[in-house]
Amino acid sequence: MLSPFLELRHLRTLCALQETGSLARAAQMLNVTQSALSHQIKFLEERYGSPLFERKSSPLKFSAIGERLLELGAHILPEVEQAERDVLRLSQGGGGTLRIVVECHTCFDWLMPAMDVFRQRWPDVELDIVSGFHPDPVALILQNRAEVAIVGDPDEDDPVVYHPLFRYEMLALIAKQHHLSERSYLQAQDFASEVLISYPIPDDMLDIMRQVLIPAGVTPAGRRTSELTVAMLQLVASGRGIATLPMWTVQSYLEKGYVAAKPITPNGLHAHLYMASSPEVAQRPWMQDFVRITRECTYKALPGIELLHPKP
């Protein structure tokens, strides 16, 4: 007799494993330990008397049993999630407004796909982006001019709720023939004789300045700014200076050999992103789903990011 029963969490585990390609990444996406997922896989394989996938295949190759369970998960999990959303609409109301203010110039690369998924799942929520650059996006929430802000550094004194998204690495972009191209990584002092190319935002919002150069007492030889990422990379490619950008913004340019990328400091330069919302909005079911959708979409699409999880 087969017991206990197959559960939804087992199907979620297999689907996450298929989407991410590894047990470690699936565990991070589901916010559980890798050991817990391994136990689920072991349970299923003992239950059905067969492996679910080839352990060292890349990409993962699922067995016939694994494929059948994935087929079941692909069919039933969206139905369950849709039913949950429908119940929440009936019990708590599904309508509302979600105006988003963005602090990060490069956020639109991943935010727009997440918004597209959200619109399909919550058509009664009016979704919009507050135009323009805002140096203090949380203030717009407090002024009731936005419901959500995408921010880099949470301020625990602010009367808002911070929903953790992900951690990512900032890379130094240099011309392919740059004299620093042989370095395995760049240090603060390497920027002293270079022009720093950045978006036109205050230094306390630039990770390279705030985390690396200012603490080291280093001032770049010059500064140039641009609103457009492609314009920044053109300046870099022509040897006009160094830019620092996330991997997801420049990956296609690196693959084409347009510019070269170097880590910043031996341990890398890392930054974090959060969603901020008022406590009231944080309780809305569509807000909770928007956070989940954004985390899942970015983790599947962006190279090299690490999901952040709420503190216990």
Automatic annotation (TrEMBL):
Question: GO cellular component annotations, sorted alphabetically?
Answer: cytoplasm
The protein's UniProt keywords, in alphabetical order, are: Activator, Amino-acid biosynthesis, Cytoplasm, DNA-binding, Methionine biosynthesis, Repressor, Transcription, Transcription regulation
CDD domains linked to this entry: PBP2_MetR
GO annotation terms (biological process): methionine biosynthetic process
Q: Where in the cell is it found?
A: Cytoplasm
Does this entry carry the keyword Membrane?
A: no
SUPFAM superfamilies named among the record's database cross-references: Periplasmic binding protein-like II, Winged helix' DNA-binding domain
Q: What superkingdom does the record give?
A: Bacteria
Q: Principal localization?
A: cytoplasm
Asked whether the UniProt record includes Magnesium among its keywords, one would answer no
Q: Where does the UniProt annotation place the signal sequence? A: none
| One Pfam family this sequence matches | LysR_substrate
HTH lysR-type domain: which residues?
Answer: 6-63
Q: Which family does it belong to?
A: Belongs to the LysR transcriptional regulatory family.
Q: What is this protein called in UniProt?
A: HTH-type transcriptional regulator MetR
